[in-house]
Amino acid sequence: MENNAAIKIGKRTFVTAVVILAVLMLAAGILTQVVPAGSYDRVTVDGRSVVREGTYHTVERPDYPAWRWLTAPFEVLAGPDAATVIVIILFLLAVAGAFSLLECSGVIEALLARIVGRFAKQKYLLLAAVVFFFMLMGAVLGTFEENVALVPIMIALSYSLGWDSLLGLGMSMLASCFGFTAAITNPFSIAITQRLADLPPYSGAGFRILIFLFYYALLIFFLLRYARKIEKNPEKSLVHGEDGALREKYAAGAGTLSEKTPEELKKLNRALLLFGVFVLLVLVLIVLGYFLPGLSDVQLPVIGLLFLLGGFLSARAAGVPGKKRRQVFGASCAGIAPGILLILMAMSVKFIISAGGIMDTVLYHAAGAISKTSPFLAILLVYLLILLLELFVGSSSAKAFLVMPLIAPLSELVGVTRQTSVLAFCFGDGFSNMLYPTNPVLLICLGLTVVTYPKWIRWTWKLQLAALLAACIFLFIGVATHYGP
What is the 3 state secondary structure string of 179-237? Predict the structure, then answer.
């Protein structure tokens, strides 16, 4: 066995992401110099700061010099989002370490051998089932970041089925993103925004179920079409040159099990069963988070800890010596470490905007534009506003507390129901999660693969455009039918 990490961020992927994020940081810094500073008064609701409508006022521009744009990634660690950033970083290290341990011990190999052996002749059905699982988890339970832990396994599964890393990301995190967006009872978007909009909890679910089914069909069509294309001609894969060796490795992996002794197979089966127990614990924790809202605050670090513990114990059960386990974990941390800088840079874009005092100014002028338009144009402006804010505020709940107290009553004044404005919030908040380079989850997912951000955009832009246009149509239907209550 080699000591190299199973997961590490490639130099090209890292450099590309750094350049893109540096440009966004520069743009955010320039905005703080040209946009007037302003602020809303705020009140505390359920422990969260909520803006008060009609209280916007200009303030003196904060003393925020340009040189601090460069130090923003490090200042994030001492800012209001410090705890979130640290949890994301530790989660990334835990996931990378767990997968490296599972890969070096042969557990991943054994898992894929069983799955491929069972579904080799039904792999399109398997793809559809996996996509439905991830979408349903997002739509009902609101899982997104938590699913990152399963991404390396889905990438390996994609290789084993003869596909590439893009399809692995597509049937896991892209599916999670679509499900989170086409929310049915998502507690982080639907529940919070409806409460802030004074709507009955989970009302209007019938229309949202239809939306969920549409986006499921759209994503399945996109993924199946791509899968068939690269099966006919592997060189059509956008990452053919980058993950060719990995695809060959996993495609041939199942055959190596026949070379193992009965004792080795017994250990692998024991390790696989043990890892399955930890995966089950993670799923139970995710479901419990839906019924126990307070659990969501610790869900991500606990999931990371469970996966890491499962990785260590499974590797031990498979017969990997303690020294080897520590070496593999250390190598995985070193391999994924560049991703920490990317996460800090991504989070610094919001930090720069907030430090410059212009977030509320953007919100104020957007709200003013919405109040002077027709219902159909108003709902588009709401959608675009959420898409814009998503660049700076990734958290769904944080964005809801920021904008919904203003948007819900304003939309109603121009003939848009509050339920439709909630739908616009979900669309704007969700699809961009796997589009914007300022989203740490997207950076983590790409960092776990050989896929660069430009190639990700090249692969998904048509799908994202179709999703955006469909969202506009659904919003127009909401306006035309006075979607309520």
Answer: HHHCCCCCHHHHHHHHHHCCCCCCCCHHHHHHHHHHHHHHHHHHHHHHHHHHHHCHHHC
Q: What is the pTM of this model?
A: 0.89
First-to-last C-alpha distance (Å) of the chain: 61
- Quick: pLDDT tens for 274-309: 999 999 998 898 888 878 877 877 888 999 999 999
Q: What is the pLDDT of residues 333-377, one digit of tens each?
A: 888 888 899 999 999 998 999 999 999 998 899 888 888 899 999
From residue 199, alpha-carbon distances to 375, 385, 406 in Å are 19, 21, 15
Pairing of strands 48-51, 42-45: antiparallel
**What's the per-residue H, E or C state across the chain?**
CCCCCCCCCCHHHHHHHHHHHHHHHHHHHHHHHHCCCEECCEEEECCEEEECCCCCEECCCCCCCCHHHHHHHHHHHHCCCHHHHHHHHHHHHHHHHHHHHHHHHCHHHHHHHHHHHHHCCCHHHHHHHHHHHHHHHHHHHCCCHHHHHHHHHHHHHHHHCCCCHHHHHHHHHHHHHHHHHCCCCCHHHHHHHHHHCCCCCCCCHHHHHHHHHHHHHHHHHHHHHHHHHHHHCHHHCCCHHHHHHHHHHHHHHHHHHHHCCHHHHHHHHHHHHHHHHHHHHHHHHHHHHHHCHHHHHHHHHHHHHHHHHHHHHHHHHCCCCHHHHHHHHHHHHHHHCHHHHHHHHHHHHHHHHHHCCCHHHHHHHHHHHHCCCCHHHHHHHHHHHHHHHHCCCCCHHHHHHHHHHHHHHHHHHCCCCHHHHHHHHHHHHHHHHHCCCCCHHHHHHHHCCCCCHHHHHHHHHHHHHHHHHHHHHHHHHHHHCCCCC
Tokens linked to 422:
């909630």
Both tokens assigned to 260: 């193992």
What size, in residues, is the chain?
A: 485
Residues 393 and 69 sit within 8 Å (Cβ to Cβ): no
Task: Give the other-Cβ count within 10 Å of 87's Cβ.
Answer: 17
Determine the Cα–Cα distance for residues 39 and 35; give it in Å rounded to an integer.
13
Amino acid at 124: Y
- 201 touches 293 (CB < 8 A): no
